[in-house]
Specification:
The protein has about 260 residues and is an alpha/beta fold. About 45% of the residues lie in helices and about 15% in strands. Helix 4 (about 105-135) runs parallel beside helix 5 (about 155-175). Bound molecules: nicotinamide-adenine-dinucleotide.
């Protein structure tokens, strides 16, 4: 018996890294999952891989989370295909590191659009559908340790993620009466395609290992385990939480500013 047997989930950023691992974990625990991502090639790859093992329980749609209509549309597509939606994971993101004084308007706008507007559109669309269904639901937003401690290599990223943390709490307060739980996960530095180039700069991986209390970097599976807990009935009385999955990095932060000077 799986911990998500019979549940219907939609995951954004599902074609890579953390979103891909969360989708795999949800499928392996019995959920049906709609994979949503802007990267069509990777999305197709993820879909083919999952379909081999979980045929009939996986579906995909290309969606750009910066466009509210496309977000509304993938929630609707989940309902059309699987009959309803119980869980939405807002995971899509980008990382373009840059010190504040060097940051241009386009990079600021793009980061805020994907990681704050995109999460808002997902929370709103998921909430509207779950309220209409009348059976509660679960919303999980992927934030970051950067939304809690200021990291000088990514002001735009930190601001977007801290917005996600407050959005999570406001949504939890507002949606509780509908039995919709809203939580965020704040991962620390995790090996994924997003961080690969940065972590491969000589000295960076060692810096993070040295400065992380649990002395290692994260793996997508670390985040997927917590997403599974938050999506399952085991966390039935948990809402409005921002849960760090970071080996303790968020306790004091790891500042890589020197790498960018
Ligand atoms: N990897 C880390 O160290 C780390 C740490 C903290 C938080 N996070 C967060 O975890 C999430 C996933 O990151 P990851 O490391 O797995 O990165 P990743 O690059 O492996 O995956 C991100 C996915 O988001 C998709 N995406 C980007 N823009 C999109 C858009 N406009 N619409 C739809 N999809 C879009 C990409 O195509 C990609 O498939 C992000 O929100 C990221 O900020 C990652």
């Amino acid at each position: 018996m799986g911990r998500l047997d019979g549940k219907i989930a939609a995951v954004t950023g599902a074609a890579s890294g953390i979103g891909l691992e969360i989708s795999r974990r949800f499928l392996s625990e019995g959920a049906s999952v709609l994979l949503a991502d802007i990267n069509e090639a990777n999305l197709e790859k993820a879909f083919q891989e999952s379909s081999q093992q979980y045929a009939g329980r996986v579906h995909k749609i290309k969606a750009d989370v910066t466009k509210s209509k496309e977000v509304d549309n993938f929630v609707q597509e989940t309902v059309n295909h699987f009959g309803r939606i119980d869980i939405i994971v807002n995971c899509a993101g980008i990382l373009k590191q840059c010190l504040l004084q060097d940051l241009d308007d386009a990079t600021w706008d793009e980061s805020i659009k994907i990681m704050l507007y995109g999460v808002f559109y997902g929370v709103r669309a998921g909430a509207r559908q779950m309220i209409a269904q009348g059976k509660g639901g679960c919303i999980i937003n992927i934030s970051s340790v950067g939304g809690i401690v200021p990291l000088s290599d990514s002001p735009h990223y930190c601001v977007a993620k801290s917005g996600v943390n407050m959005l999570t709490k406001v949504a939890a307060v507002t949606l509780g009466k509908h039995k919709i739980r809203v939580n965020a996960i704040a991962p620390g530095e995790t090996w994924t395609p997003m961080t690969e180039a940065f972590l491969s700069i000589p000295g960076v991986e060692d810096l993070f290992i040295k400065e992380t209390p649990l002395e290692r970097l994260g793996k997508p599976s670390d985040v997927a385990s917590v997403a599974l807990f938050l999506a399952s009935d085991e966390s039935d009385w948990i809402t409005g939480h921002v849960l760090c999955v970071d080996g303790g990095q968020g306790l004091r932060g790891v500042d890589a500013e020197k790498i960018f000077q």
